[in-house]
Amino acid sequence: MPSISHMIKGLKIKSKDVLVEGPHSTLPEDEFFDAVETGLDKIEEDMQLRVKLKLQSQQSQISTHNSVNASATENGENDDVDAEFGTGALARSHDLWEEIDRVCLEQLHYARQGVGQDGNGWQIFADEGEIKMYKREEEVNGMVVDPLKAYHSVKGVTAREMCHYFFMPEFRNEWETTLEDCTILEKISPDTYLFLQTHKRVWPASQRDALFWSHMRKITDGLDEGAVDTWIVCNNSTNYSTQESKNGKCVRIFLTVIMACQTHLPPGKTKADKLTRDDLTCKVTYCSVVNPGGWAPASALRAIYKREYPKFLKRFTSYVIDQRKDQPIMF
Question: Among 13, 197, 215, 261, which residue is least crowded by beta carbons within 10 Å?
Fold first, then answer.
């Protein structure tokens, strides 16, 4: 998911030594944006410094972890678990399964739809090389909840690898700059989790958290021409758990997100061939609808979206490329 802390609730200003927030704040919208922008920049700088200081040990740990997983799969260990992974078979007895299955199929259908048909309101707001991002401007009770859709083409990784790093919680803190804490409330199955995710506070906004299930699935039907496989990760807020925020003060975000990825190979090549990473292209579609709750000036939120979403997608895809470059290919 992108830095959800940038989709944030209104203002905190001092009045008679009491912090208040809401649409009646006297802080101008441009100052709100400037303050949030500065806060996000500081968080990103801090993360870059931590990565720089700990890179050697982190790389060693990640390399070891991935090598063990890859070799276990290649050597036929855990075949039963791996065969079931991405099918949802081990989650179907759970109370949430009907909702998970329905939302995943709806979001996959949504991700497969284009952005140019029927004058449906999509506007391009970022066009940076292989990345193209679109939005539709929508509000609910005065709060910006613009649906967003992004397309990207990434060389050197597979669909499963992209989804693996987006889904697995142990990697999230390495690419999600605003993440403060990610708690697994329930491991429903190896491909389905229930999370409480808390984000760092960015002044002048309140701190945010999100409670959502996450499901990773292999798609076997309706593949695009030229695609050898398709994987998705779908995240969706749920009321299944009544877990309160960690500090009792967070404003809860409500979200629906899908990352849909396809692996493409050069003409005439298949997964059974001896492949290098130069043969791999992953086509990514990322869709999100996020209600940050509370209140924030619409113009500032949209300005933050425009700045943060391309940065998130570039940062995440670069991270996956870096993690997989010396690893066995994972389909």
Answer: 13
Identify each DSSP E strand in 27-175 by its residue range. 123-128, 131-135, 139-140, 143-144, 148-155
Position 75 pLDDT exceeds 80: no
- Model pLDDT for residues 159-203, shown as the tens digit of each residue: 999 999 999 999 998 998 888 889 999 999 999 999 999 988 776
List all residues 6 or more positions away from 283 whose beta carbon is below 8 Å from its beta carbon: 151, 152, 153, 154, 224, 227, 261, 262, 264
Could you give the count of Cα atoms lying within 13 Å of 299 in the half-sphere of its Cβ?
6
pLDDT of 65 over the 60 cut: no
- Residue 124 makes CB contacts below 8 A (sequence gap 6+) with 132, 133, 134
CA-to-CA distance for 273 and 138, rounded, in angstroms? 47
Provide the 3-class DSSP secondary structure of residue 281: strand
What global pTM score does this model have? 0.80
Greatest distance between any 2 Cα atoms in the chain: 72
The superfamily in CATH containing domain 97-325 is START domain (3.30.530.20)
Task: Find the helix packing angle between 298-324 and 29-74, rounded to 10°.
Answer: 20
Give the pLDDT mean for 9-14.
37
Place of tokens 């990640």: 62
- Retrieve residue 61's tokens: 């740990």
